[in-house]
Inverse folding.
């Protein structure tokens, strides 16, 4: 019987490539997986910085900042309430379940496994990953944190929707305009390829002096108003029409989610915003895993192995192990092959069950997987 993906049979070359990967997979005693938005896209979620992606005429990068939250917490909470709703209404795909099963099989056989996910949608945990071996580099939409400086309240795994009555009915979909891309999106993507995030001195760097914070706040308010007044000035029009514009209702702060412990501080989503450091405790756990173990195989899934933070972990693994990339980016795939690794171009949710089959078998889906 020919080897095939759900959507097509494999070519002879692909079968030979997969066979060599299987041999290395079976020999591997320590596996690291780095997961990005491409895997969640297979479940139907829009990628965070997808070209032309808008929510009520706002780009994600304009709302995913501390300054935006200070300027208009109601606006930012409506955006994140929409993202929470979208993540809740989709289910983990077969790729998520294959990785979760890989983690269990590795542990059962006395081997080591760690997954670093750049996704905040919680699909990895819903698929059954052990939270101890699934580190959320960018936080989670379903973690809530108090913004009061004196309060340390954190709540994980809150999947209630809506969180408060004022956020009811804010479940708008992202509008994706084909052929349209914000200039700022292009600049952001280019800078992400070049700049390594600094995770040192997190506590000190995470605080700004009052004058800087005031300046940032006024600048953000101005940008938000500019977006409302002239929403198409930062787009590159390649033939697409202007997206539908839907004004955002103002929500007073006293109607937004508040901390149940201190009673006064606003709650915020427990995600890493632009300008913030990655969580130090998570980075420490990831670094300790690499210090304690020689990684035989690094799986790069739904993200590029040439951008940070994935690139940093891939580079550290290369000294002791091999790299396999599962992604839509053909250039990234070819580059990995040229460096002696494996590259599987296409939908990671289709490739992973087949690629991991020697370890997880073909019957790895839980009976109730369509309801998770």
């Amino acid at each position: 019987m020919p080897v095939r993906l759900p959507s097509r049979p494999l070519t002879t070359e692909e079968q030979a490539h997969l066979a060599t990967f299987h041999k290395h997979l079976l020999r591997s005693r320590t596996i690291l997986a780095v997961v990005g938005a491409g895997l969640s896209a297979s479940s139907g979620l829009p990628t965070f910085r997808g070209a032309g992606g808008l929510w009520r005429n706002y780009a994600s990068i304009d709302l995913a900042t501390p300054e935006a939250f200070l300027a208009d917490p109601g606006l930012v909470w409506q955006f994140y309430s929409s993202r929470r709703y979208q993540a809740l209404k989709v289910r983990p795909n077969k790729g998520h379940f294959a990785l979760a099963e890989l983690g269990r099989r590795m542990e059962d056989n006395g081997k080591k496994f760690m997954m670093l996910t750049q996704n905040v949608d919680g699909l990895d945990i819903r698929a059954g990953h052990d939270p101890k071996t699934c580190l959320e580099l960018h936080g989670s939409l379903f973690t809530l944190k108090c913004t009061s400086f004196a309060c340390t309240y954190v709540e994980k795994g809150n999947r209630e929707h809506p969180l408060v009555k004022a956020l009811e009915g804010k479940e708008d979909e992202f509008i994706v305009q084909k052929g349209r891309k914000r200039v700022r999106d292009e600049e952001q993507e280019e800078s992400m390829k070049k700049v390594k995030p600094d995770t040192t001195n997190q506590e000190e760097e995470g605080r700004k002096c009052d004058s800087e914070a005031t300046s940032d706040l006024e600048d953000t308010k101005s940008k938000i108003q500019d977006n409302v007044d002239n929403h198409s000035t930062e787009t590159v029009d390649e033939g697409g029409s202007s997206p539908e514009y839907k004004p955002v209702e103002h929500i007073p702060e006293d109607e937004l989610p508040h901390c149940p412990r201190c009673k006064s501080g606003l709650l915020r989503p427990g995600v890493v915003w632009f300008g913030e450091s990655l969580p130090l405790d998570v980075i420490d756990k990831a670094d300790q895993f690499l210090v304690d173990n020689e990684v035989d195989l690094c799986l790069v899934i739904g993200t590029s192995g040439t951008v940070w933070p994935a690139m940093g972990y891939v580079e550290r693994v290369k000294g002791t192990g091999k790299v396999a990339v599962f992604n839509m980016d053909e250039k990234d795939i070819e580059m990995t092959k040229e460096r002696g690794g494996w590259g599987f171009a296409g939908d990671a949710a289709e490739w992973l069950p087949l690629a991991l089959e020697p370890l997880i078998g073909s019957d790895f889906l839980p009976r109730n997987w369509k309801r998770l």
In short: Residues 46-89+139-175+251-271 form a domain with the SIR2/SIRT2 'Small Domain' fold (CATH 3.30.1600.10). The longest strand covers residues 139-146.
